[in-house]
Model the fold of this input.
Amino acid sequence: MKVKIVDVAKEANVSVATVSRVVNNIPLVNEETKERVLEAIKKTGYKPNAIARSLKIQRTNTLGIMIPDISNPLYTEMARGVEDICGIYNYNIILSNTDFSPDKEKESLDVLIEKQCDGIIYIGKDLTDEFQEILKNAPSEIVLGNVMDERGDLSSVLIDNESAAYDLAKRAIEKGHKNFALFTDRDGGFTSDKILKGVKKALNEADLSLDEELIIPGNINVKGGYAMMNKLLDSGKDVDIAMTMNDQVALGAIRAAEERGVKVPDDLAVTGFNDYWLSEWVNPEITTVKLPMYDIGAIAARMLIKMCEADEKESKTITCPYEIVERQSM
Amino acid sequence: MKVKIVDVAKEANVSVATVSRVVNNIPLVNEETKERVLEAIKKTGYKPNAIARSLKIQRTNTLGIMIPDISNPLYTEMARGVEDICGIYNYNIILSNTDFSPDKEKESLDVLIEKQCDGIIYIGKDLTDEFQEILKNAPSEIVLGNVMDERGDLSSVLIDNESAAYDLAKRAIEKGHKNFALFTDRDGGFTSDKILKGVKKALNEADLSLDEELIIPGNINVKGGYAMMNKLLDSGKDVDIAMTMNDQVALGAIRAAEERGVKVPDDLAVTGFNDYWLSEWVNPEITTVKLPMYDIGAIAARMLIKMCEADEKESKTITCPYEIVERQSM
DNA sequence: ATATTTCATGTAAATGTTATCATTCAAAAC
DNA sequence: GTTTTGAATGATAACATTTACATGAAATAT
Done:
């Protein structure tokens, strides 16, 4: 049988209130009795029941985190950032994979709310109007990670993907590239849109244009990159550079190119997006833009915890800096 | 103010008991009143309070998972396996990073127990006697993931790393390799020990021996691999093959070798361990052994949930199969 | 000496559920 | 017409805490 607060109270010959006081480090308890209670706790092996405690104090010290796929390197860094901050502030994390499925997202959110998470971090690649509405009405505090609430006012911490893509494209233009191909996300989404926009803007400013047929959609992973590059090469079009949405895609693309005898970067430049550790360990090393995914998670968590503790209700959006990192593939 | 069961009861003009019955899908409630209650739930926006429920029924439907580092590809797959199974059986996950720190492990465990997790999955690279004792006495059910309890009887699901290393080394010997180097974990641990043992066994059987000076310890990541290979090459010893404990290490090692003009696999073979998706996308593709990390997580979770639901207390250990996958680096 | 303050402790209500037991009421059985 | 059954519902005691309030004793002030 599990030992509870009344058991240690009996053991120490005090009331449960007193035990509760020493457990929660509330002063106003005599040093000597405190000693006795501590003794009793050790002897009985008492561990407070956080569930009962939460019910009473109406806080769980728990954050819910909705994330598309914890095993996807894109998201795992963010999760770690959240985790580390939670560790510092003594919060726990309930994890929920959503797999980009709206149904799973709704389900997850319900569960997190029912479990009385003090706050919830929503990480995804897009935010539908419908879900925005649902989040807005949630009883828990909400912060969006790497997702923008374009029509609403939910707090969020994100990256200016459009500028990042713009900068990277501009750099490419400066290097003399003129004929661009762009590998986009077949499932669309916020990030993909912004990158497309940024690239187009850079091209426009340089009086270049993007051949719509060279906007090639595919899956955002190595295989997808491999496939998209093959499609590009099959098209027979004249291209200087292929910009991708992600380093893994770039890796797959480079592989496909080299298998067909196309040298990167001499015959064709390739860029990644969202620096991944492996990108400087492959050959050629991938030129990309470094996005501080860990920081996004950490900042979002800190923000959320602040929202939970103070009732500082004003919603903020924080934009994190990125950094173009030029390596060998362009 | 949050709406609770009594609010719904008032709205629907029934007792809380009845509402609870319809929420929990207990029969014996009239179809018409059920309708009315459902209506009231929708109208009030009632969401059951899982905390209160858990307190009453003495179960949380929550699994705790202790994991060294969620952002480490080594562990992230396992986490995903756990997650998926939990999704199916309607459990939630409380995540706790331990960073290989015994102190953090103890802390984590306490928190998970206090939060009344029905079961806990411990993932690590080693199990100290002290912690084994602590786990054995924990009030929650415990399953070890990829960790062996050598002197105890805790349930676990693992891989026969020794055999895997043995098989891989044997394959190397068959290919004519004679002079082995081995890159081990500077921090030691269960996996590292077993691999060393397996390799030695294979060598012994072939009347070969392992030069103790060619057992090179280092960090288990790309940089570590890079450093260990440089150390090996600096030694000037005559070596055919370097076996590593992990694909990332192999990647770093290969890079170091090629930078020094040592061709892999022609001048020197390199093997990885624990197949990682990137290993077939780099050049040369890495020969390794594929360990079903996802499955370990999934099986551990399924086992744990079974232990929580039936009080099937007998402890089991399940060993998962591995597979040598020969690619280009050896 | 009495009144007042301060400190240490105890009592008990409240947190939002579930589940046991009791109750009601109608229909069926006698 | 009375008794029995059984289905539907309600009252309420847990579940393990925290905390506002009450109490009592000792110390201080009057």
